[in-house]
Amino acid sequence: MIRDMKKERIKECCASCRYKAIGNDGSRVCQLMQIVVKQQMKCPKWDMAEGLANMGHSQGRIKRREYLVFVFEVRMQGCDDTLDTLRKRFEAETGLSPFVIH
Questions:
Q1: Domain span holding position 95
Q2: I need a surface site. Which of 37, 50, 68, 94 has the fewest CB within 10 A?
């Protein structure tokens, strides 16, 4: 077991590896070795998958539903503003913070 940035335990195996891919037939394939692998296998080239390595980067800030709906609706209208700009716009228009816990 290895720990991520938030000290959560991650099992070192093909299931948590960044080089894992899914073949055309649905089998798990190692992109480095080009072989079909089992979930519990682990090779010396194992590297934590990016999604697992980045867990917890939001620092536990839970966003309001209203903010998420606002961002979705603005994006659907074709707006390409940054999230920081959208956050400031949401705060100005609603008077609310986008986060449930400040």
A1: 58-102
A2: 50
pTM: 0.46
Exposure class string for 7-37: b at 16+ Cβ within 10 A, else e: eeebeebbbbbbbbeeeeeeebbbeeeeeeb
pLDDT in tens, 58-81: 555 678 899 999 999 999 999 888
Q: Which token pair is 74?
A: 């603005």
Return the closest-CA partner of residue 89 out of 77, 59, 101. Answer: 77
Separation between Cα atoms, residue 79 and residue 55, nearest integer Å: 28
Return the residue matching tokens 């956050």: 87
Total domains, the chain: 2
